[in-house]
Amino acid sequence: MGAVRNILRWLVPLGLAYGIVLALIQVGVINNYLFATMMTICINIILATSLNLVVGFTGQLALGHAGFMAIGAYTCAIITMRVDGIVGFVLGVLAGAVLAAVVGFLIGLPVLRLRGDYLAIATLGMAEIIRVFINNMGITNGAAGLSGIPRHVDWNWMFFFLALTLVFLWHYIRSAHGRRAIAVREDEIAAEAIGIDTTRVKVQTFTIAAFFAGIGGGLYASYFYVLQPSQFGFLKSIDILVIVVLGGLGSMSGSIIAAIVLAVLSTFLAQFTDLRMIIYSLLLVLIMIFRPGGIMGSREVSLGILGKVFGERKDPAAMVAPPIVKQDDEEVPSDEEVK
Amino acid sequence: MTEFLQQAINALSLGSIYALIALGYTMVYGIIKLINFAHGEIYMIGAFVGYWTMSVFHLGVFEAILAAMIVCTVLGVLIERVAYRPLRRSTRLASLITAIGMSLLLQYTMMYFVGADPRAYPALPDYMNASFSLGGVVVKSQQLVIIGISVLLMILLQFVVKTTKMGKAMRAVSQDPEAAQLMGISVDRTISFTFAIGSALAGAAGVLVGIYYNSINPLMGIMPGLKAFVAAVFGGIGIIPGALIGAFVIGGAETAVSALGYSLFRDGVVFAILIAILIVKPTGLLGKNVREKV
């Protein structure tokens, strides 16, 4: 029964989201512009939740997510331009994800022994190296980039991959692997003392995050059909990190909310083209000063209705995490919220 | 051999510019453990202040450097006061994001006012454009000026940090802020002072880069900023001589890669060196491995 309930916890909201958007598309409410924004949101959610696994749940500050995204995007683009049809697309996305994961594993193995800021700067450097390579390879067409990538992504595919990411991460975090990751975040030395192979945990989560970043990149390539190495610079990694931090470290629903909020914000700011980035960065600073834990802290949105329907069971998400951000005004989930 | 010496001169000029920026990074990191991403932007603003001093007020190079240093000092202290001080007790990540936010804010505010197009630096006086050859090696006098000013500022910094009372306070705070406070050192003032010195050096570096590359734009701070930070990490962050060694290694590597004809891979090589050194020695070249206490 517990398993069924756990599955319903994601099945219902995901099903609802899928149905509502599909209905809106059928009715014609969602125009092309809105649809493009929605696609960006979905891709950002994939990128942010996967990065959250590393930064929020394992506590390792990685600044190179754009590098893995670039690997996924270019692999997918190169394959779909050579293999026709939907087969090429699926093959491309998966190959990109696998390649990103392999690179993530190979880089993560040595780099993840570093701590804190050293890790941040090493991963940042890694992403830059990936970009330099893409910039200078023949198959990626160098700095000019690739264009005319066949567009295969529609709402169904996008939703499929989004759901895949979210469901996988949701269960991963609640599995023994996820608990180990959280233990590493809370106290690395204590985790080691109780027999957790911390390097293994870190490399594992890093590889998984790279895999999903690869998927995100593949979808990006397929939907936006133009790729340039400059799109995957330092700023892109920062963009993704900002979503994670804004949403709350260690809160998947926070990342989702933040991705949507930021997309809406940037759509709204689009009318002030010149001032857009100024306002964006100003907001970033202000949010960090006044609410450094992000929108959600490390809590998850729990569906109250579901909780009532399916009886009183402790939310595993709430059990998982005392907030990593220890500050006075941060509310620890009270019993009422937990039930 | 001549070719080698020629490149060595180039490497030395580039390295001394990186060193000026890296010193600011390393001092700030040493004292509040924050990667001050806005540092690269302070350097960019320094370049613009120098540009205006020379083009609008028609003053000389040295006045431009001085003006840039003063403006950047004020800016650096202001940023610390407004953005970083409120966050001193929150997580490292929150401060880091704030620093990134500040960096974006400065970039785009600058872009809003001056536009994104690169500008050429004002014409330099003749003595700066002169070049002479020493046994086949062509040395430009601006390179000498760059190296000279950098060395001068570094000696000054060394003097401040090693012998003055404020320098002593800086070292004390970076070792243990609480103990320093108990000894009657004002931690806030010391941190402000650190930002002031670091920003002044970055401002000077900005003008020197403007002279050296003859082109400035609002986004010019990103890459040199990152590379200077790499230099600081390479030498062991928080350690002043380490930053110098790192800066010259990075400058040298970059010049060497360009000279060998792989200039497109320049940035990649810099970061590859960084990752290599971190893997071999995770605390940087001169860093000491501090045992973690439970």
From TrEMBL, chain A:
Broad class of where this protein is predominantly found:
membrane
Q: Does the keyword Nucleotide-binding apply?
A: no
Does the record's keyword annotation contain Transmembrane? yes
Subcellular location, record wording: Cell membrane
Question: Could you state one GO cellular component term attached to this entry?
Answer: plasma membrane
Q: How does it sit in the membrane?
A: Multi-pass membrane protein
* Keyword terms, alphabetized: Cell membrane, Membrane, Transmembrane, Transmembrane helix
Signal peptide location: none
Task: Please list the GO terms describing molecular function.
Answer: branched-chain amino acid transmembrane transporter activity
Q: Which InterPro entries match?
A: ABC_transp_permease (IPR001851), LivM-like (IPR043428)
Q: Where are its TM segments located? A: 7-27, 33-54, 61-80, 86-111, 118-135, 155-173, 206-226, 238-265, 277-296
Domain of life of the organism encoding this protein = Bacteria
Protein name from the UniProt record: Branched-chain amino acid ABC transporter permease
Automatic annotation (TrEMBL), chain B:
Q: Which GO terms of the cellular component aspect does the record hold?
A: plasma membrane
**Where are its TM segments located?**
12-35, 65-84, 96-115, 143-161, 191-213, 228-251, 263-280
What keywords were assigned to this record? Amino-acid transport, Cell inner membrane, Cell membrane, Membrane, Transmembrane, Transmembrane helix, Transport
As for membrane topology, the entry says: Multi-pass membrane protein
Matching Pfam families = BPD_transp_2
Q: Which InterPro entries match?
A: ABC_transp_permease, BCAA_transport_permease
Q: Which domain of life is it from?
A: Bacteria
Enumerate the subcellular locations listed in this protein's record, separating them with semicolons.
Cell membrane
CDD domains of this UniProt entry? TM_PBP1_LivH_like
Q: What GO biological process, any one, is recorded here?
A: L-alanine transport
Q: Which family does it belong to?
A: Belongs to the binding-protein-dependent transport system permease family. LivHM subfamily.
Q: What is this protein called?
A: Branched-chain amino acid ABC transporter permease
Q: Which organism is it from?
A: Tessaracoccus rhinocerotis
